[in-house]
Amino acid sequence: LAHDEMFMLNLLDNLPHLQLSDDHMKTILWVIRECGILNVPSLSALWKLQACLTKTTAMETHHHTSSLGNHFYMNHPLDLLALPGQPHTCQSTIEIIETQIRAACTGVQDAVDAIQMKTSVKDMITQFWLGKVITKACELQVIHLSNLDTRDERLNDHKVKGAERESIKDGINKQIQGNLFILAKLFTHR
Asked: Is 129 in contact with 99 (CB distance < 8 Å)?
């Protein structure tokens, strides 16, 4: 089954990357059905939905004729690019950057990336320091949690196991994160 799905995705990826025609859409719907998705709408149902959405949204589609004489409707490219969201306020941007710094203090790049992707806030100066904070967090975690010679002495006690051990590790991680957050804020605030 996984090989079939990979074949289907490869097929879709190799379709011409142009305006989608009816044939393209039929192929995409066929692939979706072949991958086992239930209740896939028909092409005519999609066009009806598009007509309904066109009436209920402020965007208008415009008739175009290609150099080959094909007729199609599309949104004006400037309308597509100029779909503003709610602009971030100065305060909300600062809060988002602080959230990114807190995530960086965990030593996990994916956590920072997820916040940046979700919020669309990626300050270049902060970005530089986030990389430094992530690296430092990982180094401190190795020193205080993993390295047998330097880790917290409580972790060397073989009697400490299970929930108690995890509680100690969580406490150490929180202390590392708190200390790094204070330092990172000093460097990232201009």
From this structure: no
> Is the pTM value of this prediction over 0.90?
no
pLDDT single digits (tens) 6-41? 777 776 666 665 566 778 788 888 888 888 888 888
Name which of 139, 171, 178 is nearest 155 in CA terms.
Answer: 171
List helix spans (H) across the chain: 2-13, 22-34, 43-56, 77-81, 90-104, 109-119, 124-141, 153-156, 162-188
Q: Which amino acid is at 1?
A: L
* Residues whose CB is less than 8 angstroms from the CB of residue 42 and which lie 6 or more positions away in sequence, other chains included: 29
Looking at residue 18, its amino acid is: L
Report the C-alpha gap between 91 and 64 in whole angstroms.
44
